Automatic annotation (TrEMBL):
Positions of a divalent metal cation binding: E285, D286, D309
Comment on bound cofactor: Divalent metal cations. Prefers magnesium or manganese.
Species whose genome carries this gene: Urochloa decumbens
Similarity remark: Belongs to the malic enzymes family.
UniProt protein name: Malic enzyme
GO cellular component, one term: mitochondrion
Gene3D superfamilies for this protein: Malic enzyme, N-terminal domain, NAD(P)-binding Rossmann-like Domain
Residues annotated as the enzyme's active site: Y143, K214
Reactions catalysed according to its record: (S)-malate + NAD(+) = pyruvate + CO2 + NADH
Residues of the Malic enzyme N-terminal domain: 120-300
N-terminal signal peptide: none
Example of a GO MF term: malate dehydrogenase (decarboxylating) (NAD+) activity
Length: 623
């Protein structure tokens, strides 16, 4: 292998990757067998296969497969292709959307979710094929904003279990419980405690819906094998009084554990899953702010884990902020000059500020002076107004960014100044909303932004779901005109500005990064997920758009490109893990071989290891 890699490195001809395939196909140790084409060995036959969504393919089973697997006579005689199955499903979907509604309160998006979920229950391969081929339409159904509605109504929507549930009543039993999950290999876990689902608050055990939705995107965008993902709900109670009194609620009807008792439950869970699956990656999702940072710091140097609300949101925001600099016609190296007003001091808001300040500091030399200069570019406003060092009981995570007394005098600001006051006085290049307060960027705030020191002020209304967005693109472009740059967390339509001009509504969705972070970590075999790996992911996303697109105000790519974006992001994560000597390799590709791959070869390595929804060869074997 080493000699092959050295020979490849010497080759500079344009058909290098084509010859890479040819050479590697002659050596069985290599990664040329695509993830989706590996044969599947089954220990079941007949109806057991048809009732298993992982393996069922319905009328697409060929006649030889029906004979081999004991299915002849259990299916209609006509064999159809996977594309014919999808065509039939899509036709039914159009017709059923109207009739699948469960009364007038059941919205069309929720009806779509119901129909897709039924397909998921029957045939996973076809479900993911439908999702991938219609990702722009269905990503908002399986993920934000519809997933929020699903979580709010989960007890009524529950039909069959998906994922695992650990509760405070399972203390002392989790190590044995993990062996109840049927998969011997799990690559990715998304875990939540349901305490802060999107911007909807404490939804308790209903929060499992967000873990399921995130993993759907890991499969669709990153090509993680769906048989090796696991959504997890850790139920430590709920403080939602409505759920505590609801006789149909499926979770523990007691108030949430706090303090050391809470931490001990999470500790036991982490020890259990990493004991059974030592190489698994755990993404923490929608934990309330007071636990998000604490748990991240507790585990990140020991386990392969990250928190998407803190680190994923930050990475996507940084990519957008760097894109906004480019859209202003300036090089990304000018990012440290941007003045940024941040609305929201929760886990997402502080996570973005921390990551953005580190990015600025790195550009300025990564020394103490650089960090102080970067800190001074942020003004954080929470529900009580501008955060300054005069505030009593400042959250420890926000304290480094509290404005100093010496700075406030010449700015004409004071502790608790309103968002409008801050925007008027600071004249920021960017206002960034992570407040979960819909409409916070009012007409007054947007009018004040007209005096921005930038020729193209940027508005990031990043709160989810849609109703929590700080403003809409229509409101932003109406007041600020065509020069504005707009991004949001949930999807909005572009705005017709007349005269053939378009106000582009960019969706700064975490799905641009978290699938690539997970896939890159998996394929590198990195021991932990470092800040450098996260930074590499964000910078690759920021550079993905070409110059012409960016100057038009398009700072995030369309969701339709998500598979290619994820491939590029994952490759950047792999290369950074190698550079930091964190990589330990994956399958037959060890760390030394990873280090020898060029950038193009790394991308090809990632692509080859991405699962695709094709029906694999099935082989029956007796136990």
């Amino acid at each position: 292998m080493a000699s092959i890699s050295r020979n490849l490195r010497r080759s500079l001809v344009p058909d290098r990757l084509r010859r890479l395939h040819l050479l590697l196909s002659q050596h069985p140790r290599e990664y040329v067998t695509a993830e989706c084409h590996r044969p599947v060995v089954l220990h079941k036959r007949g109806p057991d296969i048809l009732h298993d969504p992982w393996f069922n393919r319905g009328t697409a089973f060929s006649m030889t497969e029906r004979d081999r697997l004991g299915l002849r006579g259990l299916l209609p005689p006509n064999v159809v292709s996977s594309q014919q199955q999808i065509d039939r499903f899509m036709l039914d979907l159009t017709r059923l959307q109207k009739y699948a509604r469960d009364g007038p309160s059941d919205t069309y998006p929720l009806a779509k979710w119901r129909i897709l979920n039924r397909l998921h229950d029957r045939n996973e391969t076809m479900y993911y094929k439908v999702l991938m081929e219609n990702i722009e339409e269905y990503a908002p159904i399986v993920y934000t904003p519809t997933v929020g509605l699903v979580c709010q109504n989960y007890s009524g929507l529950f039909r069959r279990p998906r994922g695992m549930y650990f509760s405070s009543e399972d203390r002392g039993e989790m190590m044995s419980m993990v062996y109840n999950w049927p998969a011997d290999q799990v690559d990715m876990i998304v875990v939540t405690d349901g305490s802060r689902i999107l911007g909807l608050g404490d939804l308790g055990v209903h929060g499992i819906g967000i873990a399921i939705g995130k993993l759907d995107l890991y499969v669709a965008a990153a090509g993680i094998n769906p048989q090796r993902v696991l959504p997890v709900m850790i139920d430590v109670g709920t403080n939602n009084e409505k759920l505590l009194k609801d006789p149909l609620y499926l979770g523990l009807q007691e108030h949430r554990l706090e303090g050391d008792e809470y931490v001990s439950v999470i500790d036991e869970f982490m020890e259990a899953v990493f004991t059974r699956w030592p190489n698994v990656i755990v993404q923490f999702e929608d934990f309330q702010t007071k636990w998000a940072f604490r748990l991240l710091q507790r585990y990140r140097k020991t386990y392969r884990m990250f928190n998407d609300d803190v680190q994923g949101t930050a990475g996507v925001a940084i990519a957008g902020l760097l894109g906004a600099v480019r859209a202003q016609g300036r090089p990304m190296i000018d990012f440290p000059k941007q003045k940024i007003v941040v609305a929201g001091a929760g886990s997402a808001g502080i996570g973005v500020v921390n990551a953005a300040s580190r990015t600025m500091a790195r550009m300025l030399g990564n020394n103490e002076v650089a960090f102080e200069s970067a800190r001074s570019q942020f003004w954080i406003v929470d529900a009580h107004g501008l955060i300054t060092e005069d505030r009593a009981d400042i959250d420890p995570d926000a304290r480094p960014f509290a404005r100093r007394k010496a700075e406030l005098g010449h700015q004409g600001l004071s502790e608790g100044a309103s968002l409008v006051e801050v925007v008027k006085k600071v004249k920021p290049d960017v206002v960034l909303g992570l407040s979960a307060v819909g409409g916070l960027f009012s007409k007054e705030v947007l009018e004040a932004l007209k005096d921005s020191s930038s020729s193209r002020p940027a508005i990031f209304a990043m709160s989810n779901p849609t109703k929590n967005a700080e403003c809409t693109p229509g409101e932003a472009f109406e007041i600020l005109g065509e020069k504005a740059i707009f991004a949001s967390g949930s999807p909005f339509h572009d705005v017709d500005l007349g005269d053939g001009k378009i106000g582009h509504s960019n969706q700064g969705n975490n799905m641009y990064l978290f699938p690539g972070i997970g896939l890159g970590t998996l394929l590198s075999g990195a021991r932990v997920i470092s800040d450098g790996m996260l930074q590499a992911a964000a910078e690759r996303l920021a550079s993905y758009m070409n110059e012409e697109e960016v100057l038009q105000g398009i700072i995030y790519p369309p969701i339709s490109r998500i598979r290619d974006i994820t491939k590029e992001v994952a490759a950047a994560v792999v290369r950074e893990a190698v550079a930091e000597e964190l990589a330990e390799g994956y399958r037959d590709m060890d760390a030394r071989e990873l280090a020898r791959l060029s950038e193009e070869e790394t991308i090809e390595y990632v692509k080859t290891n991405m699962w695709s929804p094709v029906y694999p060869t099935m082989i029956y074997k007796t136990d």
